[in-house]
């Protein structure tokens, strides 16, 4: 049975604030109807268009992966647990709880490495040796291969 390591992103880390902000940001799509409704002047419209940078999904994921690789071995991420389980979905289940803190439960699968007062969630990282997975809202980003994959539980 493989062992997965769970790293929580320290959102309040000031040393890596800019990289964390870039990692956790989402790039809004430029919606022409919003510009029509809310831009009272041409100057305001041009300011919005100047600050908007069109980026492809591939570039977006690649930039996130690069940041994770840079931050993983710094104080921006903290190793909180090692989980012995057969799949990555079980890692999420074991490090989350709706009825209290997950780390307060007795669980032979989970070896605590550091106290964490929150559940595993988006922008946290799970590794299993050489593979690195960034948790996001729809599944995981395989950091080494720079691709999103959805996991069925």
Textual characterization of the structure:
Strand 4 (125-128) and strand 5 (131-136) form a beta hairpin. This protein has a domain at 3-22 and 68-149. Helix 1 packs antiparallel against helix 4 (57-71). Strands 3-2-1-4-5-6-7 form a 7-stranded antiparallel β-sheet, sandwiched between helices. The protein contains 5 helices and 7 strands. The chain is of the alpha+beta class.
Structural topology:
Elements lengths: L2 E7 L7 H8 L7 H7 L3 H10 L5 H15 L5 E8 L3 H7 L15 E3 L12 E4 L2 E6 L2 E4 L4 E3 L4
Antiparallel strand pairs: 1-2, 1-4, 2-3, 4-5, 5-6, 6-7
Helix pairs in contact: 1-4
Write a short abstract of this structure:
With 153 residues, this protein is of the alpha+beta class. It contains five helices and seven strands.
Order of helices and strands: EHHHHEHEEEEE
Low-pLDDT stretches are none
Number of helices: 5
Major sheet attributes: 7 strands, antiparallel
Query: Major sheet: order of its strands?
Result: 3-2-1-4-5-6-7
Helix percent band: 25-40%
Shape: elongated
N→C terminal distance: 17 Å
Average pLDDT, to the nearest integer? Answer: 86
Portion in beta strands: 15-25%
Number of strand elements: 7
Structure class: alpha+beta
Using the CA coordinates, give the radius of gyration. 19 Å
